[in-house]
C-alpha cells in the first residue's frame, strides 16, 4: 500500500469523525428548537401564557430571541461545516 493512499484514508477518517461531530450538533440544535416550540404551543393551548399581558409577551419574545439567535447561528454554522466537509471528502482519492 502506498504512503499517499494511507494519508488519504487517514484524512477521510478524520473528516468522517468531524462530520459526525457537526451532524450531532446540528441535530441537537434542531431538537432543542422543536422542543421549545412544542413547549410554547402546549403552554399557549393550556392558557399558561397570557398573550394579552404585555409582561408575559415581552418575556416570551425576549426568551425566544435569546434561544433562537444562538441556536440559529449554530445551525447555520454547522450546516456550512457539513457542506464543506462533504466537498473535502469528494476531493479525496479514496
Tell me what the structure shows.
With 94 residues, the protein is mostly helical. It has one domain (3-91). The chain contains 2 helices and no strands. It has helices at 3-45, 54-91. Helix 1 runs antiparallel to helix 2. The two termini are 13 Å apart. The model has no long low-confidence stretch (mean pLDDT 90).
Strand and helix map with partners:
Blueprint: H1 3-45, H2 54-91
Helix pairs in contact: 1-2
What brief labels describe this structure?
mainly alpha; 0% strand; 94 residues
Note the quaternary state here: single chain
Which stretches are poorly predicted, pLDDT < 50 over at least 5 residues?
none
Portion of residues in helices?
over 70%
Terminal CA distance: 13 Å
- By DSSP, the count of extended strands is 0
Give the H and E element order: HH
The overall pLDDT average reads 90
Radius of gyration: 21 Å
- Beta-strand portion reads under 5%
Q: Number of helical segments?
A: 2
Could you say how many structural domains there are in total?
1
Structural class: mainly alpha
Instruction: Using the alpha-carbon principal axes, give the shape.
Output: rod-shaped
Main pleated-sheet profile = none
Concise summary:
This protein is mainly α and 94 residues long. It has helices at 3-45, 54-91.
Amino acid at each position: 500500500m502506498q504512503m499517499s493512499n494511507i494519508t488519504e484514508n487517514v484524512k477521510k477518517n478524520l473528516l468522517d469523525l468531524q462530520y459526525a461531530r457537526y451532524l450531532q450538533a446540528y441535530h441537537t440544535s434542531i431538537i432543542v428548537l422543536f422542543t421549545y416550540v412544542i413547549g410554547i404551543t402546549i403552554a399557549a393551548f393550556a392558557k399558561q401564557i397570557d398573550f394579552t399581558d404585555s409582561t408575559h409577551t415581552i418575556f416570551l419574545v425576549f426568551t425566544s430571541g435569546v434561544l433562537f439567535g444562538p441556536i440559529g447561528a449554530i445551525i447555520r454554522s454547522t450546516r456550512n461545516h457539513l457542506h464543506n466537509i462533504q466537498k473535502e471528502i469528494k476531493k479525496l482519492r479514496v
